[in-house]
């Protein structure tokens, strides 16, 4: 049994996530304390007792989701399951930072600060109301790429997230994305819907944020991860710190190639994924990509106990 640890991205955030882990495991609590200290504010209070609207703000959601993933990882470690139980790691968009921190390539504090900068830079790159994203259901990547190109009409409209065989997200300027939604049904899509996001992620409009991340990442130490990272933008494993740094910059404007990443992991012998942190969205995607891969979500003390029992089974 070869497993990959995978780390969720934006959209998985919920008030209260990670709280039970922090109350059960001192090492999990320490992650939230470390993130609070790195950011100079009580992000943990927002995560556990704040308003969902505030948590959903990109600059809060990104470090909060990372903190929850790392808290789950520390809980597993407290029970004797280390990162070395995985053959590789991967993360969906911001989850790539969580994966790198879990694999020892980035410190938790650096990761928190980078994600705060990333969230703020992504939000600032495009004024609210100028950009949009939409999920196109029931069309494959090539069909959505063609749809986006036809809907663009001189504006930006790109396939941004290739999530699974039936779900591709487009990103770009509002008018272009709305045209893509309107045209999708005629192209054979089952559904097309605008997403409740505050910015058009993973498209060319994010270039100012990519520039900000290039500067921020140049000042941070990145080590070789203890297990390889399957990187979003290339859908293959990487371990070289300089290449990881470059790909994290490219990732801001580049597409999240999640479907291809999971297929790649399968070719490398991965038969099981553990989704470390909030929610179960990635597990659902993995099952739709390859039914032969078993999935497990680890986000609560009960999940940790079940994972331990399965390992010792």
What does this structure look like?
With about 325 residues, this protein is α/β, with parallel strands linked by helices. It is built from 14 helices and ten strands. It has a four-stranded parallel β-sheet with strand order 2-1-9-10. It has a four-stranded antiparallel β-sheet with strand order 4-5-3-6. A hairpin with a 2-residue loop joins strand 4 and strand 5. It is globular. The relative contact order is 0.17.
Summarize the structure.
The chain has 313 residues and is an alpha/beta fold.
Main attributes of the structure:
single chain; 313 residues; alpha/beta; four-stranded parallel β-sheet; four-stranded antiparallel β-sheet; 14 helices; 50% helix; globular
Structural class: alpha/beta
What is the averaged pLDDT score? 97
Roughly how many Å apart are the termini? 13 Å
Regions with little confidence, pLDDT below 50 for 5+ residues = none
Taking all Cα atoms into account, the compactness measure Rg is: 18 Å
Number of strands: 10
Strand content: 15-25%
Number of helices: 14
Q: SSE string, helix = H, strand = E?
A: EHHHHHEHHEHEEHEHEEHHEHEH
What is the approximate shape? globular
Classify the helix fraction into a percent range.
40-55%
**Strands side by side in the biggest sheet:** 2-1-9-10
- Largest sheet data: 4 strands, parallel
Topology:
Layout: E1 2-7, H1 19-24, H2 26-39, H3 43-49, H4 52-56, H5 58-78, E2 88-91, H6 95-102, H7 108-125, E3 131-137, H8 141-152, E4 157-164, E5 167-173, H9 174-184, E6 191-194, H10 207-218, E7 229-231, E8 236-238, H11 241-253, H12 258-267, E9 270-276, H13 281-289, E10 294-298, H14 301-312
Parallel strand pairs: 1-2, 1-9, 9-10
Antiparallel strand pairs: 3-5, 3-6, 4-5, 7-8
């Amino acid at each position: 049994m070869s497993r990959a640890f995978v780390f969720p991205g934006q959209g998985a955030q919920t008030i209260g996530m990670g709280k039970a882990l922090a109350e059960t495991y001192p090492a999990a609590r320490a992650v939230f304390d470390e993130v609070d200290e790195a950011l100079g504010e009580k992000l943990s209070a927002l995560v556990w007792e704040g308003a969902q609207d505030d948590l959903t703000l990109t600059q809060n959601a990104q470090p909060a989701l990372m903190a929850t993933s790392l808290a789950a990882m520390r809980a597993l470690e407290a029970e004797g399951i280390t990162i070395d139980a995985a053959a590789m790691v991967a993360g969906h968009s911001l989850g790539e930072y969580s994966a790198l921190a879990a694999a020892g390539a980035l410190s938790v504090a650096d990761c928190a600060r980078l994600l705060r900068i990333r969230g703020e830079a992504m939000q600032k790159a495009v004024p609210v109301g100028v950009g949009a994203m939409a999920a196109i259901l029931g069309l494959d990547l090539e069909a959505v790429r063609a749809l986006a190109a036809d809907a663009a009409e001189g504006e930006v409209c790109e396939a941004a997230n290739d999530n699974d065989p039936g779900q591709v997200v487009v990103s770009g300027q509002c008018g272009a994305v709305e045209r893509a939604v309107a045209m999708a049904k005629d192209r054979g899509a089952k559904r097309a819907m605008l997403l409740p996001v505050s910015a058009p992620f993973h498209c060319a409009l994010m270039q100012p944020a990519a520039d900000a991340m290039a500067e921020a990442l140049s000042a941070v130490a990145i080590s070789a991860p203890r297990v390889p990272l399957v990187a979003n933008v290339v859908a293959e494993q990487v371990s070289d710190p300089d290449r990881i740094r470059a790909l994290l910059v490219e990732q801001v404007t580049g597409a999240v190639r999640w479907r291809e990443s999971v297929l790649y992991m399968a070719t490398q012998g991965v038969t099981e994924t553990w989704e470390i942190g909030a929610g179960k969205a990635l597990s659902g995607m993995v099952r739709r990509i390859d039914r032969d891969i078993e999935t497990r979500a680890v986000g609560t003390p009960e999940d940790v106990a079940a994972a331990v029992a399965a390992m010792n089974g």
